[in-house]
Amino acid sequence: MAKPQKGVLIILAFFSIYVIWGSTYLLNKISVAELPPFKIAAIRFIIAGLIIFVIAKVIGIKLMITIKQLKNTIIAGFLFLTIGNGIAVWALMYVDSGFAALEISAQPLVVLLLMLLLEGKRVQPMSIVGVVLGIIGIYLLVSQKQIVSQENSIIGMVMIFVCMLSWAYGSLFVAKADLPGNYFVNTGYQMLTGGLMLLIASLLFGEKWTVPGEWSGKVQLSMVLLIIFGSIVAFTSFNY
To answer: Domain range for residue 233?
Structure first.
């Protein structure tokens, strides 16, 4: 791929990650007001994974991967989606979407700390400064003055921190793991396996399942946006 074209794709990928993913907290918050959290995440990722496989098949991308790659995509799906996203949606029952975005903005700092603790890599001071400034900027935007006074807000904060740890460890894992060479296929397997694990969690927790026709219009729209943009577009961009 030519360097200018690759540069454009990288810019678009970062745009998808920061802008589209930033909006998913609000979409999840809208959905979790009516639907149970693991159900939301399970539906989102299973459908997204199946759509990716259909598209890949239509455009001639091979879906066959090795057993080792399948194992690694299952692990990545568990870390990123089952824990990293499923519990984050659950946490939105206790905190609002603005605060969730604020807390998760510290994600790069958690990655840097895990790199230091688990891999012994030196963390550049400017990297920490950049992350801190980013967190301050998002705080000024969302301005959550009364978050600690909300009922069970501490539970939500702890749950989001667990998600951050899982996502950070997942980031270190995929950097070294043998994964499918095609980013689209890699995303599809992570989505489908992570979604199936979320489905199991939903059934184990006894969540009530309803058909889309029983959902409100805003929840239906939120789910469509989560599947297409928050999952297929943004997560493929992240893997890229």
So the answer is: 13-239
